Amino acid sequence: MKTLIVYYSGTGSNKALAEDMAKRMNADIEGLGGGGTIEGMGIAVTAFKSFIGLGSGIGKLKYDPSGYDLVVLVSPVYAMGVPPQMNAYLSRFKGKIKKAAIASVSGSGNNPKAMAKMEKLAGGKAVAVLQLKGLEDKSGPKKGFQKLTAQDLGKPEYGEKIDAFVRAVQKGL
Ligand SMILES: Cc1cc2nc3c(=O)[nH]c(=O)nc-3n(C[C@H](O)[C@H](O)[C@H](O)COP(=O)(O)O)c2cc1C
After folding, report:
1. Nearest atom, ligand 1, residue 43 CA
2. What parts of the chain have a pLDDT lower than 50?
């Protein structure tokens, strides 16, 4: 099974999740940039664009998702919606993704509406959905934001959830 992982991450948590999954699934990995991080675009603009479903630049891409059996979309939730970079990617490749799965680190870890929006943009029902709740960052410039690091994801509690997601994806194909 040829798998592509496509992620957007403003502060690193979804990037860490995408990298962890790429190893477990032996997948190619594509990071969306171009539109700027939340710092670059400004939090209010980013939240507004996410809320109403607008896109942004995504930078130069390495892979064509139409050549893959499965595309795993990894993204935070912003303002109950899908970040502009992921919105832009999914509208560019509308109808080109054969099967999708979705994984997300977000503040609440419980955003069924945002997951449903992303599923719809990806062209149908996802074979599996994984939502993880970030841990509150208690120090540094990102204080108050929720984050998961590669070190957190290395813990069994997260590893088991990611393994279960990978199994569900393989079963659903
Ligand atoms: C502009 C903005 C809006 C957000 N809105 C939500 C939200 O509606 N629901 C939620 O659960 N988390 C929300 N969050 C929290 C992020 O989803 C969370 O911090 C996530 O772990 C960030 O992932 P990243 O480190 O990969 O960027 C928001 C964060 C930002 C910056």
Report:
1. 1
2. none
